[in-house]
Amino acid sequence: MSTEVDTGTERMLARVEGGIGWMTYNSPARLNALSMDMQRAVPRILDAFQAMPDVRVVVVSGAGGRAFVSGADISEFGEKRTSVEARAEYDRVAAEAGRAWGRVDKPVIAMIAGYCIGGGLLTALQADLRIAAEGSQFGVPAAKLGLGYGYGGVEKLMALVGPAWAAEILFSARRLADHEALRIGLVNRVVPVETLEEHVTDLAAMMAANAPLTIKACKAAIREVLRDPDRRDLATVEALVEACFRSEDYREGQQAFLEKRPPQFKGR
After folding, report:
1. What is the pLDDT of residue 168?
2. Tens of pLDDT, residues 8-30
3. Are 116 and 138 in contact (CB under 8 A)?
4. d(CA 52, CA 66)
5. Helix %, strand %, coil % of the chain (to 5)
6. Cα(62)–Cα(76) distance, rounded to whole angstroms?
7. pTM for the full predicted model
8. CA 218 to CA 28: how far, in whole Å?
9. Helix or strand or coil: residue 23?
10. Which of 12, 139, 184, 229 could form a disulfide with 175 if both were Cys (CB 3.0 to 4.6 A apart)?
11. In whole angstroms, what is the distance from residue 39 CA to residue 19 CA?
12. Is 125 in contact with 163 (CB distance < 8 Å)?
């Protein structure tokens, strides 16, 4: 059974099915170019998924099969990214979307088919892992457009692929093929396009069947490892780990192991 989530715009789709929250950028005629109304919808969708106990995993995708997200909607730049005031509003909306990604303590998978460029690559970097279809392309064209690429995007890219590859991606503004993205660790794996959704759904279902509190603690720890040492909140991570040991799920995991059956985790 699938439950639709109101996104506030037809350019974004969201549904919950089988413990998975699906968020889809839905402007295939424009290769899912990232518009302001899409950005405004992101917090609405992600906060809804975060509040739903039945949602164990979030999958992010692009409609149409030709693009995940092909980049920012350049047609909006003249009106919405030129004057100081307009750029401030654009940056505010983008920053709120970024904060919404940071509030999600559930696994996020980016399901990538086709172009994953500029703002699309930054969107994919918000996910915990990225599964790409064969033929997908990746890149950051900021240097060809003359626009500034913010610190947050550079930080995320460099944390994933290292400074040398981040420099090449940003300075050259060239596109990387699927095999190159896989080799440098930009994506976790590349699969045939016809099996992409099946592969991602199976992986998401595997995660959804695991203990939510354990995954939450692990995701928090991964985030803290990526912070500067003097900014790490290790106390929160330790509290989340302790919550696992005090949970009903911990007892259920032991019992299921002894009884040689799949565990039924409740997230408490």
Report:
1. 97
2. 999 999 999 999 999 999 999 99
3. yes
4. 31
5. 50, 20, 30
6. 20
7. 0.92
8. 35
9. strand
10. 139
11. 24
12. no
Instruction: Give the phi and the psi of residue 168 in degrees, each rounded to 5.
Output: -65, -45
Pair type for strands 12-17 and 2-4 = antiparallel
Token output for 115: 């172009």
Q: Which two tokens stand for residue 203?
A: 């992986």
The HSE-up count of residue 205 (CA atoms within 13 Å, CB side) is 8
Q: Which residues does residue 116 pair with via DSSP β-bridges, in sequence order?
A: 69, 138
Question: CA–CA separation, 170 vs 138, rounded Å?
Answer: 11
B/e letters for 124-148, b = 16+ CB within 10 Å, e = fewer, are bbbbbebbbbeebbbbbbbeeeeee
Q: How far apart are CA 214 and CA 206, in angstroms?
A: 14
Continuous segment of H or E residues that includes residue 2: strand 2-4
Contact 118, 72 (CB under 8 A): yes
The token pair that represents 36 in the structure block: 């302001």
**Is 76 a residue whose pLDDT tops 70?**
no
CA distance 250 to 268: 9
Mention every residue, 6+ apart, whose C-beta is less than 8 A from residue 223: none
Environment class of 37 (CB within 10 Å of its CB; exposed 0-12, middle 13-18, buried 19+): middle
Q: Where are the alpha helices (DSSP H) in the chain?
A: 36-51, 77-80, 84-103, 119-125, 142-145, 151-161, 163-172, 178-183, 196-208, 212-225, 234-245, 248-258
